[in-house]
Specification:
The complex is a heterodimer of chains A (324) and B (298). Chain A has helices at 45-52, 75-82, 102-113, 118-131, 148-160, 178-194, 207-213, 231-236, 241-249, and strands at residues 2-12, 18-29, 34-38, 60-65, 68-69, 85-88, 166-170, 199-204, 216-221, 224-230, 305-308, 311-313. Chain A is α/β, with parallel strands linked by helices and 324 residues long. Chain A has an eight-stranded mixed β-sheet, sandwiched between helices. The radius of gyration of chain A is 21 Å and the shape is globular. Chain B has a domain at 95-298: MetI-like fold (Orthogonal Bundle), CATH 1.10.3720.10. Helices cover 73% and strands 0% of the residues of chain B. Chain B is built from eleven helices and no strands. Chain B has helices at 4-8, 16-30, 32-54, 89-125, 127-142, 145-156, 160-186, 190-197, 202-238, 250-258, 266-293. In chain B, α2 packs across α11. Chain B starts with a helix and ends in a 5-residue tail after the last helix. The chains are: A alpha/beta (324), B mainly alpha (298). Chain A: It is found in: Cell inner membrane. Chain A: Pfam families: ABC_tran, oligo_HPY.
Chain lengths: 324, 298
Amino acid sequence: MLELDDLRIHFPLASGEVVKAVDGVTLKLAAGETVGLVGESGSGKSTIGKAALGLIPATSGAIRAGGEDVVGASAATLRRLRSRAQIIFQDPHASLNPRMTISRSVAEGLILNTPLRGRALRERVAELLARVGLPEQFLNRFPHELSGGQKQRACIARALALDPEVLVLDEPTSALDVSVQAQILTFLKELQAARPSMTSLFISHNLAVVRFLCQRVAVMYLGRIVEEGPVAEVFENPRHPYTRALLAAAPAPEANPRAKGPRVDYVELTGDIPSPVNTPPGCAFHTRCPVARKGICDVDRPADLDVGPRHRAACHFARDLEAA
Amino acid sequence: MSDAALSAAPAARRPMRFRETRRMAATYSRSISAMLGLALVVLFLATAAFGPMVAPFPEDAVGAVNFEAKLLPPSAEHPFGTDQVGNDIFSRVLFGARTTLQIGLTVTGIAILIGVPLGLIAGMTGGWVAETIMRVTDIFLSIPGLILAIAIVGALGPGILNAMVALSLVWWPGYVRLVQAKTLSLRNEVYVDAARALGAGPFRILFVHVLPNCLSPIVVKASMDMGMAILGAASLGFLGLGAQPPFPEWGAMIAQGRSYLPDWWWCAFFPGLAIYLTVLGFNLMGDGLRDVLDPRQR
């Protein structure tokens, strides 16, 4: 399982200003659950993914991955964490060392964390690669000899080598061709079934993919979670204007959108996401929000409101938007 | 999960390692100038290795005097002519190759041994350590290398050994800059993050993930610097600060031959030609290597 508690990650700039990449995020993933984390570029979702593995230090708050405290962990604790949490990155072309063969890349985690060596190690690596659909002839190839989809499979094999309890997937398909995306997504779906106890944090800006793979979804805006709940609930009955805008912006995955229950009155979003250096006062979204009211939204930061079973939204009007 | 393209790939396992090398060799050999550079370098290395054995007048290299044969023009017996004390210039040029190679290797080698570790430290650590290393490097880079080398030799006293020490001391900052810049970009690579996530410590990151990916630009710069260091040593020799006559060093030979220009041109011309071809060879080879190893920097 993975727990983020009031996590803040701030990057100081040379100018003395501070980038608030993640600004108070609380999210709990139960064992075996796959939770989607969606939002625009710059909303802080990838930063959370890296912080969950201790790759980026947290400014404050707590992260527990597989029962280990990540924030302020000693080098030894972080090392123990390695076998429990792993990450798959967006760009498979950049995530493999160009000077290492595929088998060496996949073997790295095993060499660092297990006593496997020699023949046993080679057999284990071959088995891991076979499981992601890369036959033996790929063992001694270099990354540039593989296609994007093959590289991403090698990265998945590398991440699964240590049998992690927590897997962070940082937009694992967005750098791939559409046809290859489908293969990887199908494989990830099979993986969920094969490893029912593995907790996954699936970072994406593709709502259709989140709907396909995740049980719950958290929507991020400017370093904060604005809405969170079960996938069906959030997608059918979004309570935060930002979630509505995101859903409106995404092309409908179904051939006939009306076939899937009542559609809410979607809003369209104008303008750009504000800079995380100067976050707007009050609700960070009020500069672009169609329902924002002067004197409320630009002054008070909205608290999380429970709007349904395990469904929360950080909007002053979340309950009023119900029957929109 | 397996698609057709996967299983259709040829099942060659062993030759895979050499495929990359073969591809690079093919790319390199397509360039005429790179092959010319390689030929010149091979000729130079062969001369350094076997020159002293085939030299027709080996005693002339160590300062024999034969005034009957002084300042003879190039002929069948003396292909490069003879100098003011009757020494065979061809033999002296052949002997000089070994000295020149020694200078090039020593200067470049010491520069790499000092510069690369400092560059790695500066690139990996950051903070005041990196800041100190880089500012000292900047100071060295802001002074023309040869001028500084002349000052150092001036302080140490002229001589071939002191010339090599002086050149090495001014040569390393270039490597610090190169390696530091490369390390800075490499340490933010996604595969470095992936290695950290797998539990790799800083030393493993450095030696397994960063250094091997720095090697190409280092090799390219080293092959270029061989030529530059040889030129630098010849310059010091020409100024009388490097090898001392009658030691057969090309720069010193030009310095001596200079007083006999233009009538006895061969005294300065042939050592100069040797320097020219050697430096040209290393530069062309470096260019070719860069095209193969470091295509993005073209």
